[in-house]
Amino acid sequence: MTTTSQTYGGRGYLVHLPEAVIDTLRGQAVSAGRRETGGILIGYYRNGEAIITEVTSPPPDSKSGWFRFERGTRGVKSYLEEKWAADPREFYLGEWHSHPTQQARPSSTDHRQMQQISNDPDIDCSQPILIVVAGQAKPLPEFSVGVYDGASDVPAVLKQQTDLAHRGSDYGS
Ligand SMILES: [Zn+2]
């Protein structure tokens, strides 16, 4: 069985998460220890799927603590301009952050921030994705994938992955 990627679906579009991206999320969450960490999701849409190709580490002006992560903005705009100019063209798809000592379920603050992003004309992403990674969960970090449409504080799609070892059979491949 090949499990090179995971696809999460529901209303709106599917989210395609390559195995390499999952590994990066895991690695960054674990290496940040007890502090939250995060960044942005970059990729593109194709045939009703959001393909996540890259997850960034925190911009240098980010602020983090045990129970908070405020993603900074330094360097983000110019990096996204580079991605937009590249071939194939890639762009902002959403946000990710870790919950070192909590479940991967998004908090009410997370929901609110994603709704704001969805409605922000400067960001220009009406259905942003949020991935939350539980950094110290054993044996492997658990994560959730949410797609927000800006109409409600809760995501239109929210999938939680609790057992990565069985993802192939749980989610198909
Ligand atoms: Zn959170």
Give a structural overview.
The protein is an alpha+beta fold. The protein has one domain (5-171): Cytidine Deaminase, domain 2 (3-Layer(aba) Sandwich), CATH 3.40.140. It is 23% helix and 31% strand. The chain is built from 4 helices and 10 strands; from the N terminus they run E-E-H-E-E-E-E-H-E-H-E-E-E-H.
Total of DSSP H or I helical runs spanning 4+ residues: 4
What CATH architecture do you see?
3-Layer(aba) Sandwich
Number of domains: 1
The fold-level CATH name is: Cytidine Deaminase, domain 2
Sequence stretches where pLDDT stays below 50 over 5 or more residues:
162-173
**Global shape:** globular
Biggest β-sheet description: 8 strands, mixed
Helix content: 10-25%
Radius of gyration based on Cα positions: 15 Å
Strands side by side in the biggest sheet = 1-2-4-3-7-8-9-10
User: What hetero molecules are in the model?
Assistant: zinc ion
Q: Structural class, please?
A: alpha+beta
Give the DSSP E fraction (strand runs of 2 or more residues): 25-35%
Query: How many distinct beta strands?
Result: 10
CATH class: Alpha Beta
- Going by CATH, what is the homologous superfamily? Cytidine Deaminase, domain 2
How many angstroms separate the termini?
A: 8 Å
Average pLDDT level: 82
Order of helices and strands: EEHEEEEHEHEEEH
Please outline what is shown here.
This protein has 173 residues and is α+β, with helices and mostly antiparallel strands.
